[in-house]
Amino acid sequence: MLQFRFSTVPKELFKVTLKRPLPCPRQKTWLPTLRCFSGTASVHTRAACAPLKLFHAAANRPALRAAPSAAPFRSYCVKTEGAVELDEQLKKDGVSSEAVGDKRRNPGILPSLEDLLFYTVAEGQEKIPAHKFLTALKATGLRTGDPRLKECMETLKETLKKTSDGVTLDRQQFKKCVQSNIVLLTQAFRKKFVIPDFQSFTSHIDELYENAKKLTGGQVADYIPQLAKFSPDLWAVSLCTVDGQRHTVGDTKVPFCLQSCVKPLKYAVAVHNHSTEYVHSFIGKEPSGLRFNKLFLNEDDKPHNPMVNAGAIVCTSLIKQGASNAEKFDYVVNFLKRMAGNEYVGFSNATFQSERESGDRNFAIGYYLKEKKCFPEGTDMTSVLDFYFQLCSIEVTSESASVMAATLANGGICPITGERVLSPEAVRNTLSLMHSCGMYDFSGQFAFHVGLPAKSGVAGGILLVVPNVMGIMCWSPPLDKLGNSVRGIQFCTDLVELFNFHNYDNLRHFAKKHDPRREGGDQRQHSYGPMDYESLQQELALKAPLWKKVSPTESHQDSSTTVVYRMDNVGKRN
């Protein structure tokens, strides 16, 4: 049984329970067994998972039912034998009567969310080491550098400077640190994110990464001289969920150019700024069935789609028409930075120069498009090609690109900032074209086997989107004969073989795969999005905290009997 123990009962919680007597069912109750993770995991992972058990038990335990009777039996919390007098304990803790229930939004119903979070992390101690809280936080998938937690982390840093040891926090200090972000933290520790068992999920991701790392086939692209300088041993995978949970493995800090991975992003910008009808009055929507750099148009003398070079060049001409290339470039880079949650987006001038010097095929495509009057009236074709080469030379890391992909997965809202960057229309159309045309001549096979929107680039990147779940960036320079990353294709294929991420994996009567969106394989979890404090308090108020007097044997202690506070029924959605 998952229980929370401390030597004495806080006075304020004791008073709350006396004010609101609790039903005491005569029947036996049960508590489900918690599985924090499966597969191989480090000792640090197991240690980090332990503080989460209290909230997890609260979210999964069925509601207790009182025995039917006209006058249901009620019991009251009383002080256990051997417990220290409450008044003496309050004086010892330095808690004044005026401080009881401060910041509690619903006094008399439940302790505040801040209190519940403290008891979860503290595990019976009167103080919490800061590193213990941060380790438990990382186990949920959140990072200390998450922009949403900026105020919390700054307050924590300042508070630790004022503590006697610079390491631990008491309850009041902890509450002060977390109160600005308590709703997000409560959702994280109660496993309300889209991937509840994040440690288990990432252990599988690490295994898939290692499997793909063993591959040695493929060739690094050399038709752009600057790309040929990358080591074939580089391999990185980063993911970001729609709730901002992050995981990275491999060479995730190495910058690389987006190349063709920028095509769906600038298409999304064009649709966002104009409209679907306007953009597709210049570009088609069909797969070409030809090489991405072919001089070929459809029967209406339009490029087949925005994911081939001809379509991407025309799409480039639609962005900020009439502005200078410098203004256009700054505009798109700022757009991509917002999609990446202000993480790294750079520019490789060496790659830009290399592209322009070796871009004969793209110049040929440009002149062909000009001949067929594919550009908006008044377009300077050579200026458009320069801008096209610049956008291909934009640098990212696998970490920042995974946030861009997650913004697409999240309907155009960046998960780590909450900012709406793209319209829903732009996102839907972008994902549709990525699904049908994003993987060069392998698009049909990828749609068949993987069944997810993706876009590859000759630098070795694969931008993968799992709608409503996460975005992933795989990067490894060696390419197969169709221009896709060898390791990236293997990783995406293995991912969908293990998890039910394929668009049609969830059909009725279909063979079951692992669903990381289910907690313990029992109940489907959803990304609930932002919730306010009052909503969470109302949800928690539906369930009453239980107090139980346990024996030394049950509490695994040899000392005298202690009082156990359990959040058994807190936060379960009906």
Provide an overview of this structure.
This protein is of the alpha+beta class and 574 residues long. Among the domains are: 113-190, Recoverin, domain 1 (Orthogonal Bundle), CATH 1.10.238; 204-498, 3-Layer(aba) Sandwich (Beta-lactamase). It is built from 22 helices and 19 strands. Strand 13 and strand 14 (470-475) form a beta hairpin. It starts with a strand and ends in an 8-residue tail after the last strand.
Condensed summary:
This protein has 574 residues and is an alpha+beta fold. It is 39% helix and 11% strand. It has a five-stranded antiparallel beta sheet with strand order 8-7-14-13-12.
Would you spell out the secondary-structure blueprint of this structure?
Blueprint: E1 4-6, H1 11-19, E2 22-23, H2 43-49, H3 53-60, E3 74-75, H4 86-93, H5 113-122, E4 127-129, H6 130-139, H7 150-162, E5 168-170, H8 171-178, H9 182-189, H10 198-213, E6 219-220, E7 236-241, E8 246-250, E9 256-257, H11 263-273, H12 276-279, H13 309-317, H14 325-339, E10 345-347, H15 349-357, H16 360-371, H17 381-392, E11 394-396, H18 398-409, H19 424-437, H20 443-449, E12 454-456, E13 461-466, E14 470-475, E15 478-479, H21 486-498, E16 518-519, E17 523-524, H22 533-541, E18 546-549, E19 563-566
Antiparallel strand pairs: 1-19, 2-3, 4-5, 6-15, 7-8, 7-14, 9-11, 10-11, 12-13, 13-14, 16-17, 18-19
GO molecular function, one term: glutaminase activity
Domain Glutaminase EF-hand: 114-196
Pfam families: EF-hand_14, Glutaminase
